[in-house]
Write a structure and sequence with these properties.
Layout: H1 5-21, H2 25-50, H3 54-65, E1 69-72, E2 80-84, E3 96-98, H4 105-114, E4 117-122, E5 125-130, E6 139-142, H5 143-146, H6 149-170
Antiparallel strand pairs: 1-2, 2-3, 4-5, 5-6
Helix pairs in contact: 1-2, 3-6, 4-6
Length: 171
């Protein structure tokens, strides 16, 4: 996937021309939205060029949140991570459940809560960052690249958590 930089610059020029003719709050907001869309698209492309695979993302995200997981390859589709249920249920119930915040809204929500994340949306992107972050862990994912708003939100949460997990791993 390549960055459509010419198209984006043309769109930005058009929005700036409208702002020059009418410097109102509404046109200023349109300039901000377009600038954010360009930034989000470029950020996504840069991430794609250096990204970890999903298994690495999930491992680091779990580490950041202190979630114990293990890989179980006996599931359809090649395997899944399992997390231990706390408190453990009584026999004969399983003590482990699948864990995949990239596809499960509940897992992504619990991950964002565990890491005290701020999650928000703007200009066709989902953003996730820890509430006390200075910007170093902020992740943004465009809806278009992720396949929709929900998928982009989950991926932004997991990517931010994985960045935190890198720090935990390096300590």
């Amino acid at each position: 996937m390549s960055i459509p930089i010419d198209e984006m610059l043309t769109d930005l020029r058009e929005v700036l021309e409208v702002f020059d003719a009418d410097p109102s709050d509404a046109t200023f907001n349109a300039v901000q939205d377009e600038t954010l869309r360009i930034e989000c698209t470029c950020e996504g492309e840069l991430w794609e060029a250096t990204k970890m695979n999903d298994r690495e993302l999930l491992e680091l995200a779990a580490k950041a949140a202190g979630i114990e997981i293990h890989w179980c390859g006996r599931f359809p589709g090649g395997g899944v991570y399992m997390r231990k249920i706390i408190p453990e249920p009584p026999e004969p119930y399983s003590k482990h459940v699948p864990w995949d915040p990239l596809t499960d809204d509940g897992d992504a929500f619990r991950l964002s809560v565990a890491l005290d994340m701020n999650v928000f949306h703007a200009a066709g992107c989902a953003f996730a960052l820890p509430s006390d972050d200075d910007g170093s862990y902020e992740m943004q994912v465009s809806y278009r690249d992720a396949g929709g708003k929900e998928a982009a939100t989950r991926r932004a949460i997991v990517r931010a958590a994985a960045e935190i997990g890198k720090e935990v791993r390096d300590e």
